[in-house]
Each structure stands twice: as C-alpha cells, then as structure tokens.
Amino acid sequence: MGKMFDFGLVFRQIPSLLQYLPVTMELAVISMLVGLILGLLLAIIKIKNVGFLNKIVNFYISVVRGTPILVQLYIAYFGIPMFLRYINTKLGTDYQVADIPGFLYAVAALAINQSAFECEVIRAALQSVDRGQIEAANSLGMTYLQALRRIILPEAIQVALPSLGNSFITLIKSTSLAFTCAVVEMTAQGKIIAGRTYRYFEVYVSLAIIYWVITILIEQLIKFFEKKTALPEQVAIYNPERALAAQEVQAHD
Fold first, then answer.
1. Separation between Cα atoms, residue 241 and residue 234, nearest integer Å
2. What is the full DSSP assignment across the chain?
3. How far apart are CA 158 and CA 182, in angstroms?
4. Exposed e or buried b per residue across 52-91, where buried means at least 16 C-beta atoms within 10 angstroms of its C-beta
5. Domain extent at residue 221
6. Residue 4 lies in a domain
7. What is the CATH number of the domain that holds 65?
8. Is residue 229 domain-resident?
9. What is the 3-state secondary structure (H, E, C) of 32-60?
10. Residue-wise pLDDT tens digits, 166-193
C-alpha cells in the first residue's frame, strides 16, 4: 500500500510544474498591461464625466465586477468564436476561427476583468494629485495629455503602486483558471500530472508552494519599487537616514 502522503514527491514534481511558469507569467504580465491601458482610459472617461460614455463605463464596470472570472473566461472562450463566425458570415470571409489560440481568449478575459478593477484604483490615484499642479501645467500651455504624462501619472503611480501590486498578485493566481480556455499553465499541468499519478494532494501542495513563493517575491519587488518611486517627502518613511542626510545638505546650502 502506498504512502498516504509522499512528502518527497511534493518537491520532486516542482521542477515539472515550473516548466510552465513562463506561460503563467506571460498570461499575467500581458493581461496586466492590457488591463492597465483599458483601466486608464476608463478612469479618464469617469474623471472627465464624458456624458453617455460615462454611463457605458459604469455599466461595464458593474457587469465585470459583478460576475466571476471563471464565468468570464468561459464566455470569452465560447463567445468570441461565435461572434467571429457571425462576422465571417456577414462579411463573407473564410477566416478560420479555430486557428486562434486559447491563450488569446484567456488574455482577453483576464485583461477585461483587470481593467474594471484597475479603473477605480487609477481614478482614485489620478484624483489624489494636487489640483494646483494641474492648474500650473495648464497655465504653462500644457494639454491634458501632456500634463497627464509629465505630472499626473508620475505622482499617481506612487499612490496606486501598492494596490496595483496586490492586483497583479491576484491576477497571477487567477491564471490558474486559464485551463478553461485550453491553456496549459502550471495548474493545468498539475491536473495532468495528478491524473497520471493519482497523487492529487501532493500536486496541489506543490502548486501552493510555488504560488506562495511567487507572491513573496513579487511583494518584495513591489516594496523595492515603492522606495524607488517615493516622493521626496515620503523618503523618511522608507529611509530615515537618507532623509536626515538630505536635511543636512539643505541646511548647509
């Protein structure tokens, strides 16, 4: 009779699972970048209160945030091909929808989900920037886009970074559902290994360890970037010695 729990197997199968870590990270990074771009556009529409578009954005956010990511992945995987086939029929084209990889459907669903959540984070960060700085930029003849790129975004990033980091960690864990789009990432590979060896518990413990370590590494990376992007008045929070040195330099000046 086999062991009830094979502790050694937990670590022996980690290398097999890590072979699919690049797929997991690629899914997360691309979805995060697309989600941030969409989230920024949605946030600007809400801040500017662009009439009818604002109502559409509110409806979009309500639907996306009010439905499970698993359901959204299924809708993307089955719904997008149906829509493309409909377009093919209307336009009389013969584009092969079956040639589209499931990876793209997973990215679409994860990015859309991410954009709805990042919209509010980005909007709050943009609105936290001092209005006086924006008015000063306007008085210098800058357009809103120029002020956004040169003044608003650099300061807003510092405010939004902790929340965006947490969202990215959540997104990495959400990629474990990408198997619904026929994407073989770490969790899907774990299911394959478990189905072959019948050691389901060990496989899922291995996955838990991997995701846990990834989370710790990303948390440390976020803290590093928070320190690097800290505004001058926030330096004392992260590095009191550096702040004291800066004060002494100012005193000598």
1. 13
2. ---S--HHHHHHSHHHHHTTHHHHHHHHHHHHHHHHHHHHHHHHHHHHT-HHHHHHHHHHHHHHHTS-HHHHHHHHHHHHHHHHHHHHHHHT----GGGS-HHHHHHHHHHHHHHHHHHHHHHHHHHTS-HHHHHHHHHTT--HHHHIIIIIHHHHHHHHHHHHHHHHHHHHHHGGGGGGGT---HHHHHHHHHHHH--HHHHHHHHHHHHHHHHHHHHHHHHHHHHHT--GGGHHHH-HHHHHHHHHHHHH-
3. 37
4. eeeeebeebbeebeeeebeebbbbbbeebeeeeeeeeeee
5. 19-252
6. no
7. 1.10.3720.10
8. yes
9. HHHHHHHHHHHHHHHHHCCHHHHHHHHHH
10. 999 999 999 999 999 989 999 999 999 9
- Residue 27, C-beta contacts closer than 8 angstroms, at least 6 positions apart: 103, 106, 107, 110, 175, 178, 183, 185
Q: In the predicted model, is pLDDT for residue 122 greater than 70?
A: yes
Is position 128 within any domain?
Answer: yes
CA distances from 226 to 153, 194, 217, 243 (A): 15, 40, 14, 16
Q: 70-112 pLDDT, tens per residue?
A: 999 999 999 988 888 888 777 767 666 667 889 999 999 999 9
What pLDDT is attached to residue 3?
67
In this predicted structure, the answer to whether residue 60 has a pLDDT above a threshold of 80 is yes
Structure tokens belonging to residue 64: 């996306």
What pLDDT sits at residue 144? 72
Number of domains present in the structure of the chain: 1
Domain-located, residue 191: yes
